[in-house]
Amino acid sequence: MFAGGPSDEAAARPLRHVAIIMDGNGRWAKERGVPRLEGHQQGVEAARRAVETARDLGLSHITLYSFSTENWNRPDWEVRHLMGLLRRFFEEDLAKLAEEGVRVRILGDRRTLPDGLGKLVEDAEARTRQNTGQTLQIAFNYGGRDEIVRAAAKLARQAAGGELDPEAIDEAALTGALDTSDAPDPDLVIRTSGEQRISNFLLWQAAYAEFVFLDCYWPDFGREEFLDAVDQYRRRERRYGGRREAEEAG
Ligand code: IPE
Ligand code: IPE
Ligand code: MG
Questions:
Q1: Where are the domains of the chain?
Q2: Residue nearest to atom 3 of ligand 2 (CA)
Q3: Rg (CA), the chain
Q4: Does 71 sit in the ligand 1 pocket, CB within 6 Å?
């Protein structure tokens, strides 16, 4: 597989799906002496730029981590503001995205979303389901452990109902029960703000993802930073537990 020329190399490093941990809005605001909410506002602009760049790069999937299951621990006013931003995103951006052929998917537990937001999520997905362009996954009220627990419970219900043979449960079955069921695993996970941790993001799916950590705060993430991360990815060697390319011959 890794035997030869540039086309083999490109095949070993396809870039279809980039997932981003959008971190550092608060510190961005603090450094400027502006309210934290202004940081989140500028964060939405950065997310819009990222979706555009992803399209220019020809990615089939982009996933943005917007609100974690642990982010409920923040003060009420901040949680409400973050909910409001998602609502506004649906109101302001969905029509354009739908027109451009983007398919929108929301990852996370939607049953516990507040007033009307769950419905907006369902509508956004229904409205863009038939689209065949890029897939934009927004992880909201999302936690990797929570997602795996919900998937396991789903399989258990099917088994208890006699629809599924427990002996038939394999990696593909669990993958298929996740919120990301029809998406390829992320090739590249980017985190901004200098933190180097996964914070409960795509725990199952990122098993063999490449990670790029950037020092810039999320509101400062633009096209150049995105291309820089992709460039770092292109210089990586993905091995999936196999051997180095150079050793392959011998
Ligand atoms: C990322 O920015 C946005 C969310 C987690 C919702 P933060 O709000 O975490 O900003 P920092 O990490 O405190 O700077
Ligand atoms: C991760 O950022 C979650 C999102 C970007 C939505 P956090 O700021 O919540 O993560 P920690 O607390 O620094 O790990
Ligand atoms: Mg943070």
A1: 15-143+185-238
A2: 68
A3: 19
A4: yes
The pTM assigned to this predicted structure is: 0.94
Ligand sitting nearest the alpha carbon of 191: 2
Nearest atom in ligand 1 to 28's CA: 14
The topology under which CATH files domain 15-143+185-238 is Undecaprenyl pyrophosphate synthetase (3.40.1180)
> What is the token pair recorded at 25?
């809005």
Mean of the per-residue pLDDT values for the chain?
A: 94
Q: Which of 73, 111, 27 is nearest to 200 (CA)?
A: 73
CA–centroid distance, residue 40 to ligand 3 (Å): 11
Catalytic positions are 23, 71
Q: What's the CA gap between 57 and 64, in Å, rounded?
A: 16
The ligand placed nearest to the CA atom of residue 218 is 1
| Residues, CB-to-ion distance under 5 Å, ligand 3 | 23
24 in Cβ contact with 217 (< 8 Å): yes
Q: 157-203 pLDDT, tens per residue?
A: 999 999 999 999 999 999 999 999 999 999 999 999 999 999 999 99
